[in-house]
């Protein structure tokens, strides 16, 4: 029961963090109801101000970019920032794993604690979660959800995006597993078996990427802020639950799961930012903005 409480606490904490962040963003956006138009106007004002201050040199530097084109550049910059931050997190974790210090010092104590506090009922639940939340299970979920949402919304976007998300995160984690070659925990600490290397956890990565992509797609169509917060909180809780199941079953170290989540977030940031930039490009071509 103690271990079940820890797992439930982690899952609920993930959802609570998303809810808290969502409420803060909701409060901020409520004070800026015309945010999309404001971004373009702010970009136009900034461009005009720089044009007056810098003069011809600014014109040569920007090449006569319009405000909507500058907004596109900002979208790309934000996407790249998210990718870089996730990549830095992966780098720090890999260093801890290879050196055996930092966060990696928690691996063995946590594994021993989990092995000493399992129960038959919770083991059955975690095996079911692990089965559904694995790379194969998440691929099926991604394809099925993509097709259903595509039919519902009469768009291929959801199917393509979810397929790219699932395929990319599987390839990325498989390549890194082979490159790092980290061993899994001892069989004496496990109640399940898993082939291959441990870092990063393919289950955790697939769950983070696919659940995140699904939450992002749904949030684009949901008008209610409470609805958006709910889908993101649900996605975060599912990803945490899948990761917890892998540590519980003894087939991954804690750092394997943390690495999997970071890899999933990294690939999710690549996919979402690329898709957002693609959408901005389509809008810019269909509706050119004024020269500034």
Give structural notes.
This protein has one domain. Helices cover 79% and strands 0% of the residues. The chain is an all-alpha fold and 292 residues long. The chain has eleven helices and no strands.
Q: How would you summarize the topology of this molecule?
A:
Elements: H1 2-30, H2 35-54, H3 56-62, H4 67-99, H5 107-116, H6 120-132, H7 135-153, H8 157-180, H9 202-221, H10 225-248, H11 254-286
Helix pairs in contact: 1-10, 2-3, 2-4, 4-11, 6-10, 7-8, 7-9, 8-9, 8-11, 9-10, 9-11, 10-11
Low-confidence parts: none
Our count of domains comes out at: 1
**What is the element string, with H for helices and E for strands?**
HHHHHHHHHHH
Tertiary shape: globular
The total of helices stands at: 11
What number is the mean pLDDT?
Answer: 80
Summed up:
The protein has helices at 2-30, 35-54, 56-62, 67-99, 107-116, 120-132, 135-153, 157-180, 202-221, 225-248, 254-286.
Question: Keyphrases for this structure?
Answer:
globular, 292 residues, 11 helices, mainly alpha
């Amino acid at each position: 029961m103690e271990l079940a409480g820890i797992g439930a606490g982690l899952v609920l904490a993930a959802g609570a963090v998303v809810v808290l962040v969502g409420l803060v963003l909701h409060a901020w956006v409520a004070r800026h109801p015309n945010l999309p138009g404001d971004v373009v106007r702010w970009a136009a004002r900034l461009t005009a101000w720089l044009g007056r201050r810098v003069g011809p040199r600014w014109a040569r530097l920007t090449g006569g970019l319009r405000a909507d084109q500058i907004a596109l550049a900002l979208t790309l910059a934000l996407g790249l920032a998210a990718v870089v931050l996730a990549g830095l997190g992966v780098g720090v974790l890999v260093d801890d794993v290879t050196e055996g210090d930092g966060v990696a010092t928690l691996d063995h104590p946590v594994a021993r604690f989990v092995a000493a506090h399992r129960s038959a009922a919770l083991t059955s639940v975690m095996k079911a979660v692990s089965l559904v939340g694995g790379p194969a299970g998440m691929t099926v979920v991604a394809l099925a959800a993509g097709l259903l949402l595509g039919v519902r919304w009469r768009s291929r976007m959801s199917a393509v995006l979810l397929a790219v998300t699932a395929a990319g995160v599987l390839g990325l984690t498989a390549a890194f597993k082979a490159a790092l070659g980290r061993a899994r925990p001892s069989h004496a600490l496990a109640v399940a078996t898993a082939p291959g290397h441990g870092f990063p956890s393919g289950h955790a990565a697939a769950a983070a990427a696919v659940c995140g992509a699904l939450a992002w797609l749904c949030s684009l169509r949901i008008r209610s802020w409470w609805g958006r917060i709910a889908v993101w909180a649900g996605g975060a809780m599912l990803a945490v639950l899948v990761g917890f199941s892998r540590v519980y079953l003894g087939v991954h170290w804690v750092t394997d799961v943390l690495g999997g989540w970071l890899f999933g977030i990294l690939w999710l940031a690549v996919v979402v930012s690329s898709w957002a930039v693609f959408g901005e490009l389509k809008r810019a071509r269909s509706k050119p903005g004024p020269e500034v």
